[in-house]
Amino acid sequence: MEQKAIDILGQHRLMALATVRPDGWPQATMVSYANDGLLLYFVISRGSQKFANIENDDRVSIVIGQDFHDPSTITALSIAAHASEIRDAAQRKEAIRMLLERHPGLRKLERPKPSHSVVMRAYPAIVTILDYSKGFGHADVLTVSPGGVAMTPARDDDWGFGSELKPIS
Q1: Residues paired with 16 in a beta bridge
Q2: CA distances for 48 relative to 19, 22, 95, angstroms
């Protein structure tokens, strides 16, 4: 199941990143990312509200997915993670390399400078894999820890739409 989550990460390039503001309100923004397995990398402004939020509370929520025409084709990820700045120069350089490889359009810009930008990594703690081909509302949940990845029983949330897909006329 971990590979399925990694495959979904590989199919997308943008994620919604939610942080916790000092006043308790969530703040969500779109950021580009690269990944190494389940580990996510992204760059944000050192002066941004989201960086200040993460410095204050490293818990973030991430959503990755896309629009659909047929609900049975929905696959997406919802991730609870801890985010931190990459301070090691070699790790920062490697994360930027992965981001530029994943997002070739970023090569048109100057490289991020440590004085202005922060290269971040997000360590997932909980990864929820949505796969509606298994039924509308189906989710598999992975718990990620230093000891490895464990899967909890699948969840089928009832949204009240029913389980049968009908032809659209």
Answers
A1: 30, 63
A2: 12, 13, 20
Instruction: Give the span between the Cα atoms of 112 and 99, in whole angstroms.
Output: 11
Please write down the HEC assignment for all residues of 111-132: CCCCCCEEEEEEEEEEEEEEEH
Q: Say if domain 2-156 classifies as CATH 3.40.50.880.
A: no
The count of residues in the chain is 169
Which stretch of DSSP H or E encloses residue 53? helix 49-56
The predicted-structure confidence for 63-113, as pLDDT tens digits, reads as follows: 998 877 777 767 889 999 999 999 999 999 999 999 989 877 666 666 666
Q: For residues 44 and 31, is the Cβ–Cβ distance under 8 A?
A: yes
**Residue matched to tokens 């464990």:** 150
Which residue in this structure is represented by tokens 């290269």?
119
Closest alpha carbon to 120 in 91, 146, 100, 143: 91
Which pTM was predicted?
Answer: 0.83
Instruction: Tell me the two tokens of residue 51.
Output: 């960086």
The closest alpha carbon to 85, from 48, 111, 110, belongs to 48
- Nearest Cα neighbor of 62 from 127, 132, 158 is 127
